[in-house]
Design goal:
The protein is mostly helical. It folds into two domains: about 100 residues, Rna Polymerase Sigma Factor, Chain: A (Orthogonal Bundle); about 80 residues, Arc Repressor Mutant, subunit A. About 60% of the residues lie in helices and about 0% in strands. The chain is built from eight helices and no strands. Helix 2 crosses helix 3 and helix 2 crosses helix 4. It is elongated. The chain starts with 19 loop residues before the first helix and ends in a 9-residue tail after the last helix.
């Protein structure tokens, strides 16, 4: 291979908008630098998504790690000509949903969309992620996946093993209660 081919360019010197296809092909062949580049390019956004869905930085780290482990095990099924970001986002969302479903079995009251509000400064109420902290993990995940990630209620119901109307109901109640919290930041947020 000549020294002027794209494969000989160190990954650290690649432009940010570099086509991922070459990097994915290199990673598929076991190139650790290529895998590191994919991780660096996507880990922050994936962690942010997982954190919003789970409400915990530790759970988010676990989910991102699991997502990249799935990438390692699934290179053969991944088309290197398609962007890897959407695939990784889907994996992270599915892993978060699986964890939430597993955790729900231990929760007695699935009817509530609000949890006891964390102690936060009043300025935190203006931030969407601050507001989402007031929701149960279930409601937070449904709201985020529907309102931000664009999942349909039908897709959410199917993925969570519930009905479309279940998803609509949870999201509707959660959004109404978030609007109330945003409009009245000093009001207690737990239901009686």
């Amino acid at each position: 291979m000549s020294t002027d081919t794209p494969l000989s360019i160190p990954l650290a010197h690649w432009p940010v908008d570099r086509d991922e296809a070459l990097c994915l092909r290199r990673a598929r062949r076991g190139d650790e630098a290529a895998l590191a580049w994919i991780y660096q390019r996507h880990a922050r956004a994936l962690h942010s998504l997982a954190w919003r869905l789970m409400g915990s930085p530790q759970a988010a780290e676990d989910i991102v790690q699991d997502a990249f482990m799935r990438l390692l095990g699934g290179f053969a099924r991944i088309d290197p000509e398609r962007p890897i970001g959407p695939w990784l986002r889907q994996v992270v969302a599915n892993l978060a949903i699986d964890r939430l479903r597993r955790d729900w079995r231990m929760i007695e009251d699935e009817g509530s969309v609000l949890r006891e509000a964390p102690a936060r400064e009043p300025a935190d109420h203006a931030e969407a992620s601050g507001l989402l902290r007031h929701l149960t993990p279930q409601a937070r995940a449904l709201v985020w996946l529907n309102q931000v990630e664009g999942w349909s209620h039908q897709a959410l119901g199917q993925r969570f093993g519930r009905s479309e109307s279940w998803s609509k109901s949870i999201v509707s109640r959660a959004l109404a209660q978030l609007r109330d919290i945003a409009n009245h930041p000093g009001t207690p947020t737990h239901e009686h």
